[in-house]
Amino acid sequence: YQARAGQVAYGYAIGMLCAEWHIPFIPGDLNNAGTFPFPVRYESVAGVSGADVLRGNGDSYAKIMVDAAKKLEAEGVRAITGNCGFMASFQEEVASQVNIPVFLTSLVQIPMLLNMYGKEHHIAVLTANSASLTDELLAGAGIADSSRLTVQGMETYSHFNDVILKELGTLDEDKMRDEAVQAAKDAIKRDPKIRAFMLECSDLPPYSKAIEAATGLPVFDWANFITYVYNATVPHDYQGIC
Predict the structure, then answer these.
(1) CB within 8 Å of 181: residues ≥ 6 apart
(2) Among candidates 224, 149, 232, which has minimal Cα distance to 191?
(3) Residues 7-32: tens digit of each pLDDT
(4) Bridge partner residues of 151 (DSSP)
């Protein structure tokens, strides 16, 4: 083991670049430390707001994001994620500047999910703002063809809009859950070819179980993906009998 000058805590395998939001982060949300069974190193990216990320100001903030990622790498984290799916606009630049895995957006799961299903099947993407989920943003996450994606925007659901997009500061968990489930059902009504859900937004994992229960379809969220990457970077020993 080697000490690092000025470092006051160790043992963080996952580092998270955090845009600034005025949102209550409940259990299951990426920004709630109790969501994970392992420590996460949260790094606030000063001056980068959630609204900035949603507006797609990637070029304006790329250097700030890269510098924050390099700081986390120097502190010993083994992989770097983000706290907003629209950080896809920074994905390629940040990944090219560090030497550890980078997955700033849940959207990087989509190519894998498309390969898991036949070409006649579709993936529903529940996103904070469908207007911001452009082809350019998807390309930043490695998605060249969006023809099998059914995008369902949460911006049309009133409580989600108030909490996440308007950042009014108060969250009713039951209302959020009901709206997330309704959005999933609405997506299925629009497209019966849907076979799974992918939750773009980092605030939606608390409702994955409810979505699965209501639809009977698999739900791929960001919190579980972070756990997947953690287990890749900190493998555990298998014990038992044979």
Answers:
(1) 207, 210, 211, 214
(2) 149
(3) 888 999 999 999 999 999 999 999 99
(4) 125
